[in-house]
Amino acid sequence: VSIYGLGEGVPRHLELTTLTESERTEMRPNLRQDLIPISNDGSGNHYCLDTRCGSSEEMPIVFWDHESPAAEAQEPEWYAPDFVTWLEAWLE
User: Fold this and answer.
1) Which end of the chain has fewer CB atoms < 10 Å from its terminal CB, N or C?
2) How far is CA 46 from the centre of its chain?
3) Whole-angstrom Cα distance, residue 10 to residue 14?
4) 38, 39, 43, 31: which is closest to 76 by C-alpha?
């Protein structure tokens, strides 16, 4: 699994700020402003932090489906209560 990041040494295609801006403005449907993508599933969909819920330390992970018929109005599918739980599931 590839996880988006920040800082020196992060490849451009995994750079969080650039990717988030592109998904929110250039891609269709636009990624909602309250979602922060953390990983791509390989088909253009994203696992995202949902900033509407939780604290600044623990935000739930949801799945943004770019092919959803509801487009920008979709309610992303809940995947995990926080990043660590989501990552542990991937590592298993």
Assistant:
1) C
2) 5
3) 6
4) 31
Return the amino acid letter for 19: L
pLDDT per residue as tens digits for the range 81-90: 999 999 999 8
Q: What's the DSSP call for residue 33?
A: T
Name beta bridge partners: 63.
47, 77
Q: Residue 48 forms beta bridges with which residues?
A: 37, 62
Give the chain's count of helices (H) and strands (E): 2, 4
Q: Is the dihedral of CA 80, 64, 36, 56 positive or negative?
A: negative
Residues 6+ apart with CB under 8 A from 33: 24
